[in-house]
Amino acid sequence: MPVKLQVVMTIPGKEPREFEYEFDEERISIGRDQDNEIQVPLSTVSRKHCVLFREQDEWFLEDLKSTHGTKHNGRPVGAGGKKLLRDGDSIDLIHFKITFQNAELASPDYSAEKTEALARKMVEEVLATIGKDGGETPYVRVMNGPDEGKRFDIGVDVSEAVIGRGADCDFQINDANISRRHGIIRRDWNEITIEDAGSKNGVVINDKKISRPTALRDADEVLLGAVRLTFIDPSAKFIGKLDDIPAFADASTGMEGDDGDEHGDNSDSDSYNDGDGDAPDVETRTTEGDGPSLLAGPVDEGDEVEPGAFDDDEGVVDTTHKGLGAVELGVIGVAIVAVLGLAVGVAVLVLGY
Fold first, then answer.
1. 126-153: per-residue pLDDT in tens?
2. Other beta carbons less than 10 A from residue 140's beta carbon
3. Sign of dihedral through CA atoms 266, 268, 272, 277?
4. What is the pTM of this model?
5. Per the CB 3.0–4.6 Å rule, which of 33, 128, 177, 224 could disulfide with 133?
6. Helix, strand, or coil here: 133?
7. Which residues pair with 153 in a beta bridge?
């Protein structure tokens, strides 16, 4: 499953530059040393700064206790911290902004074939969510502590599960700051929720302490004592791609003929404009041979780089999208109807029993 990393380099006193990398590896290290998959020879970047790694079908970012830290979507990861990566997430090092892109989900060409493939994948993910494929069910993953990497699948057979330190819990986490019965996860046909089970330290979701059962959404972070969990819904990354299809984006905003500033990050595009209206140059790199370096040559303290690092040598990337036609809309409509029909059919079967 290849991934693409788009890097924007903004060193004071230099023109911003863009680089693009594509990787097939399941571990991508970033740092100042030459043996990193991406070398950033700046004094503000640690020798081993951070790493992106794949676990089953999900990608994660881990800070390697770097000196100046790593940010995920603008928020500090923390020394040794880990974050789930979703398509379009940003990773910030000092002077560098990296955009993560799952190449499998990239759909710049909204042809009938690609739209049909996306719709088919959506149906497959919905089927997995209702239990046809146990490996694709939602789950929670421990992100730190002695049990880091441990996961608990929330399949259709799970209606209620207790998380805590006690040996009788459905999901046991060995940490002194977690109560014997800390939280309760419940699943019904509509959603998956979590609530505090009367714990000493409470349940915190995305830095907010909850006082009632709260629905979990993909990439939510749950804090139990000092242990951080991430809720992962594998189907979300495919369903979310509907927002990238022009017809759905227009329908969701209800706006026509706007100047483009209402969608995505267009409002920031001028920061990389060279003044003549053209898009910034993009250097495309591959991972053949030694790991690529963003800058060539030695770097002095103060982030000095050699002049040749900013020479233009590549063309402009065309990021335009084709419009969605009647065929594509028909395919998507059929897929949605099929999913709704399937859900209703399963509900009828269950209620019938």
1. 555 444 444 478 999 999 999 999 999 9
2. 25
3. positive
4. 0.65
5. 128
6. coil
7. 139
